[in-house]
Design a protein that fits this description.
Pol/histidinol_Pase-like; 15-stranded mixed beta sheet; alpha+beta; Phosphoesterase; globular; TIM Barrel; 5-stranded antiparallel beta sheet; TAT_signal; 20% helix
């Protein structure tokens, strides 16, 4: 463990045990619990037309959330009947409101149930799950609860399909799921499971007035080796992002199912080729696929989720939403602005509450830019660019009763060289860890720690991103059966520098 347990942490553990007891299978409500970490804000449950994300940064703070959570509506279908008969609770077991309460308890202010599809599931979502979501919104207004699903993506593994908050959100999901989800037809339609159908889906989504978001789940879970990909391939990410760059925006850097080792399983359920420090190989390998996409100048972001189905204390492989993984978005407590932050890369992620805030800023020639943004500097001046990193450690204990400590922060820089000739390219040889910082290299300002590093004579387009860890591993090692609480990391999304 990273910190010593105290009487406070033992009380926290007792509270967790009580929560697990109350949040049992089939529960429709759980006992009130303390709000762990972060501040609360009243949810604004309104049509997103009234508050489209427009670059207005007022009242934006880092807000933790989770866009990949399962409820009892991840069920099963009896296909001996026509139409198929749906039964709740086969794959995931908790009511939507239970997930929302647990999300609130573990410091989240936004979340999303992303249930599995299946034959005629679009009708189940519309007629059964959506009314339960509306009830959960009323019961837990502190957590913005998005509507959407774990999309049965044509020719690919699952993806988040997040629908903007508006009066016709249920009908919008029904239209997309019934028309494009590969498992929705009954009888099955093999023509649904093609890359051409995926492109058709993205074009339809792009044409909609209320633009959804699409984010790939556990992208390398089916990979059989390092760089030996399975269902999700680099060219499919590129082709989809080319068609709808404001819809198809990223993948999970840290997949869910992180509690697998606590029950003898693999982190993330990655049984063929492991995660690295809990992160997918596509993200964790410096100069790998993520860097290859960023090196093209793509605005391609990473997130971290729980993929919660069944809590590990009940024999599952999962943590509750927010208990271990968090995706932070710089936004107002507002549906439209949360989606705007996800769409535009105002995101950083962490596991185990290693830190509670992270700001990465590029500064040069009197201007600055943060994660997801672009700093433009003049070529004539051969500008130096200062990278400022600010992070706030956890004050108190995390959900395991530990107080984790940041042992190192890495600054990673790669060049932006334009589109790759090979659509399946998964390397960026220009990407390097340009500096590593330990506790002696940062200084404290208020409740934050600050690191500054200068990139000298910047003459080419580039991006900079940051990661940090509680370990002494120079690079994240392939995961085995170690406790996930002993192997914590955080990652920023990139800030870009453009030289003109």
């Amino acid at each position: 463990m990273q910190g010593k347990k105290s009487e406070d942490s033992e009380r926290s553990a007792l509270s967790r045990r009580q929560l697990v007891k109350y949040a049992g299978v089939g529960a429709t409500f759980v006992a009130a619990a303390p709000f762990v970490g972060g501040g609360t804000a009243q949810a604004h449950d309104r049509d997103d037309d009234k508050n489209q994300g427009n670059g207005d940064s007022r009242n934006r703070v880092w807000r933790a959330g989770d866009h990949h959570v399962h409820s009892e509506y991840s069920g099963e279908f009896d296909t001996t009947k026509n139409p198929p008969v749906f039964h709740k609770g086969a794959d995931a077991v908790y009511p939507i409101v239970t997930n929302a309460i647990m999300a609130k308890n573990f410091g989240l202010t936004w979340a999303m149930c992303t249930d599995h599809g299946g034959p005629t599931h679009s009708k189940v979502n519309l007629e059964q799950a959506y009314p339960d979501l509306l009830r959960s919104r009323r019961l837990v207004p502190e957590v913005l609860q998005f509507w959407g699903m774990e999309f049965d993506t044509p020719n690919l593994d699952h993806h988040t399909l997040m629908i903007p908050r508006h009066d016709d959100e249920a009908q919008q999901l029904f239209e997309l799921e019934s028309r494009f989800a590969k498992n929705d037809p009954f009888p099955a339609d093999p023509g649904r499971d093609t890359e051409a159908k995926m492109i058709e889906f993205l074009k339809a989504a792009k044409s909609m007035r209320h633009k959804p978001l699409v984010i790939a789940h556990h992208a390398a879970r089916s990979a059989t080796g390092l760089g030996v990909y399975g269902q999700d391939t680099p060219h499919e990410f590129r082709n989809g992002n080319n068609v709808a760059p404001d819809i198809y925006v990223g993948f999970e850097g840290a997949p869910g199912h992180q509690a697998g080792p606590l029950n003898g399983g693999a982190r993330g359920g990655y049984g063929n080729h492991p995660t690295y420090g809990g992160f997918d190989q596509m993200t964790a390998r410096v100069g790998g696929l993520w860097d290859s996409l960023l090196g093209e100048g793509r605005r391609w972001w990473i997130t971290a989720t729980s993929d919660s189905h069944v809590h590990w204390t009940r024999g599952g492989s999962d943590f509750w939403p927010g208990e271990y993984s968090k995706t932070y978005v710089h936004a107002r407590q507002d549906y439209a602005d949360i989606m705007d932050g996800l769409r535009n890369g105002r995101i950083w992620v962490t596991t185990g509450d290693l830190i509670t805030s992270l700001d990465v800023t590029a500064k040069g020639q009197g201007r600055d830019a943060a994660s997801g943004e672009t700093l433009v500097v003049s070529r004539r001046n051969r500008s130096d660019v200062e990278i400022e990193i600010r992070f706030r450690p956890l004050q108190g204990n995390n959900a395991n009763g530990d107080r984790p400590e940041v042992r190192r922060v890495d600054l990673i820089v790669g060049q932006v060289t334009g589109p790759a000739a090979n659509l399946d390219s998964d390397t960026n040889p220009t990407t390097k860890v340009v500096a590593r910082f330990g506790p002696r290299d940062w200084h404290k300002q208020g409740s934050e720690y600050v690191i500054k590093y200068t990139l000298r004579n910047v003459e080419t387009d580039l991006y900079a991103r940051v990661r940090g860890t509680s370990t002494d591993e120079a690079e994240p090692l392939a995961d085995g059966k170690e406790s996930p609480w002993d192997d914590l990391w955080f990652y920023s999304n990139p800030v870009f520098v453009e030289v003109r």
